[in-house]
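Instructor's aside before we start: the two examples that follow are unrelated to each other. I chose them only because their records fit on one page, so don't look for a connection. First example below.
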Amino acid sequence: MASSKFKIDHGGIAAILKSSEMHALIQSVTDQVAENVREQGIRVGDRDGGPREVDLPVIAKVITTDRAHGSVLIAHPAGIAVQAKHGALTKAASEAGLEVKGD
């Protein structure tokens, strides 16, 4: 049985983590998590369909520094309460196939 060996130096790993392909992959997953949050249909700002009630504002962003990384933000003062009550971000990440762990 033939075996092959290869070595990726730290510069090679950094190049992979910063690559446009990795950025696109992270963007895809980040967008999916954001869409999963939106699909939950959570509304904020007023009660029971009041005039100031709006769909939960969700922002997805990918940045590349030393590596590509994404973030999904509930962009509303009630975001913390929405996460506490509904687990909106946790549920959305899990539905996108991400493993969610506590500290």
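Example two begins here.
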Amino acid sequence: MTMRTTTFALLSALALAAATGCGSGDDGPGGGTTLALRMEPAQQGVDSSCAQAGSSCECPNGAYARLTLVAHASDGSEVAVDPGAVQWSSSDSASVEVIADGAAADVGGLRDWFDANGSEPSATITASYQGKQASMPVTVVINASGDWQARLDNGFSYLLSLQQSGRAVTDTGTGYGGSIAGNALTLTVSGINVNATFSSRTQVNGTYASSSGGLHGTLTCTKQ
């Protein structure tokens, strides 16, 4: 925890803001202004595979995003926020960590489905400013990024190199993809549909079937 916090404090000083709208707002300080949280990529060198999901965000376990508190006047123009007056909190700091940095904060998943008795951990991140608040729900998803060796029951073996963005996963070798929900993984690679479950963070078991229906069976994927 100390090492992670120290690393983010260092990286935050070098951060470049690349805004993408993700968040929810509330009435802001005075004069009809509004507050909102804006999600930006995590700092360089940190897993930043969190992604926007409507007005909330989804983070693979171990991934981080940067949230910035923004205030807008009634005419839509952005107004300055006093960094020293912003307070950050997580409704479940054991599941979603928040590392405050003035008007911004780094948030990341600390636990996933395997730690939470068969459910996806989530927390609400809140920024309080001058008596008002803006918040954003964050859900932690199993992190499947990396190389996986897929072995089919017919003896065929295939290497999957997965990249992840929120729930979405993509095989970099083919460009095909799928998604994660709870401990379930769906994936379509080169015309083969995979429906599987994570038995651990490093093993997936399930079935496969070709789109044409001619090829089907069981498979096991092991993280390398």
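The mean pLDDT is 87.
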